């Protein structure tokens, strides 16, 4: 059965594998809000665990929003988790009430066991040299969904971020932001790993190596394609999950010239993630709006991914 909560919507999520268990952290908000669009300012991070990726046991949340005046006192959003030197690190997105949620920041918490978490004072913010900042946009400052990994070649930690370039048409600025750290606490923001031009946002990125090629999985909301892309693509205003490709782990990354990995007018499967289990590549997603426009707010069961001879990915949904 898919992961569904009777009283809460679930959407963006990320995994942490601690064999034999697979932990999933996810955003959730009360269904009693009525309007799913209200869920973002009420989002909290939830936690569940499974042995088979089918039956999930819900656990206590890792932490709540921060105290008044903190960077995450309004809501906590999407992140990622990794283990280093026996300690788990979660990087997540925080928004604050003092800015009415308009500025997104990447925050950091640690845990010895994936259950008991302690927030740190570390903060990673958008650098206006490359990215939109509060002085450059009338909308929200996009700096969210951190995906953190260790790069063996450079000997440093790398962070991929949903971000927007600081110049160009508004609907074309979506990029994969980039930051680097030697110790997981002090981060240096660098230039994006992708070029703007096709999307408003490239959300919930995940780096994965498939068939000898590095790929950055990302999601696009309905209507999130730029006018230029809509003019030359038959996917119109479709949303869903797609990917960039690169020959090197740290890019540069470019968009594959093919249809979405999984996309439709409703972005019915969103925030896609991949996980390898027993040699099989599996795809998970949050289930968004159904054919009647009802928000589902649950996670899918795992779906097998196949790799064609030409390297294209296909989903058995």
Structure report:
- There is one protein chain.
- The protein is an all-beta fold.
- The chain has one domain: Tachylectin-2, Chain A.
- The chain contains one helix and 22 strands.
- Strands 13, 14, 15, 16 and 17 form a five-stranded antiparallel beta sheet that branches.
- The protein is globular.
- The mean pLDDT is 94.
Order of secondary-structure elements: EEEEEEEEEEEEEEHEEEEEEEE
Q: State the end-to-end distance.
A: 15 Å
Mind summarizing the main beta sheet? Answer: 5 strands, antiparallel
Domain count:
1
Shape: globular
* Text of the CATH class: Mainly Beta
Q: What's the overall average pLDDT, rounded?
A: 94
| CATH fold title | Tachylectin-2, Chain A
Q: What are the low-pLDDT stretches, counting only 5+ consecutive residues below 50?
A: none
CATH superfamily: Glycosyl hydrolase domain, family 43
Write the layout of secondary structure elements.
Blueprint: E1 8-18, E2 21-30, E3 44-50, E4 57-59, E5 75-84, E6 87-95, E7 105-111, E8 118-124, E9 143-151, E10 156-164, E11 174-181, E12 187-190, E13 203-210, E14 213-220, H1 227-232, E15 239-246, E16 254-255, E17 262-264, E18 269-277, E19 280-289, E20 295-299, E21 303-307, E22 313-315
Antiparallel strand pairs: 1-2, 2-3, 3-4, 5-6, 6-7, 7-8, 9-10, 10-11, 11-12, 13-14, 14-15, 15-16, 15-17, 18-19, 19-20, 19-21, 21-22
Defining key terms:
mainly beta; Tachylectin-2, Chain A; five-stranded antiparallel sheet; 1 helix; 22 strands; 49% strand
Give a brief outline of the structure.
This protein is an all-beta fold and 317 residues long.
């Amino acid at each position: 059965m898919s992961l569904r909560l009777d009283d809460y919507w679930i959407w963006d999520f990320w995994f942490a594998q601690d064999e034999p268990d697979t932990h999933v952290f996810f955003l959730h908000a009360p269904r009693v809000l009525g309007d799913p669009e209200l869920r973002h300012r009420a989002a909290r991070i939830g936690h569940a665990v499974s042995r088979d990726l089918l039956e999930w046991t819900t656990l206590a949340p890792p932490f709540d929003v921060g105290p008044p005046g903190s960077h995450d006192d309004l809501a906590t959003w999407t992140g990622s988790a990794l283990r280093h030197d026996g300690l788990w690190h979660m990087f997540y997105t925080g928004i604050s009430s003092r800015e009415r949620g308009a500025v997104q920041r990447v925050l950091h918490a640690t845990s010895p066991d994936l259950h008991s978490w302690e927030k740190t004072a570390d903060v990673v913010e958008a650098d206006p040299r490359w990215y939109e900042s509060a002085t450059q946009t009338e909308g929200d400052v996009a700096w969210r969904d951190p995906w953190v990994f260790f790069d063996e070649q450079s000997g440093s930690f790398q962070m991929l971020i949903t971000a927007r370039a600081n110049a160009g048409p508004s609907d074309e600025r979506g990029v994969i932001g980039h930051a680097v750290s030697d110790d997981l606490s002090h981060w240096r923001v660098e230039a994006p790993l992708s070029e703007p031009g096709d999307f408003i946002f490239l959300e919930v990125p995940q780096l994965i190596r498939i068939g000898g090629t590095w790929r950055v999985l990302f999601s696009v909301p309905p209507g999130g394609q730029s006018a230029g892309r809509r003019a030359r693509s038959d996917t119109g205003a479709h949303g869903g999950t797609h990917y960039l490709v690169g020959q090197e782990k740290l890019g540069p990354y470019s968009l594959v010239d093919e249809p979405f990995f999984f996309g439709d007018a409703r972005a019915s499967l969103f925030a896609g993630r991949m996980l390898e289990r027993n040699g099989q590549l599996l795809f998970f997603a949050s289930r968004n709006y159904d054919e009647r426009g009802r928000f589902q707010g649950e996670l899918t069961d795992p779906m097998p991914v196949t790799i064609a001879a030409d390297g294209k990915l296909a989903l058995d949904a």
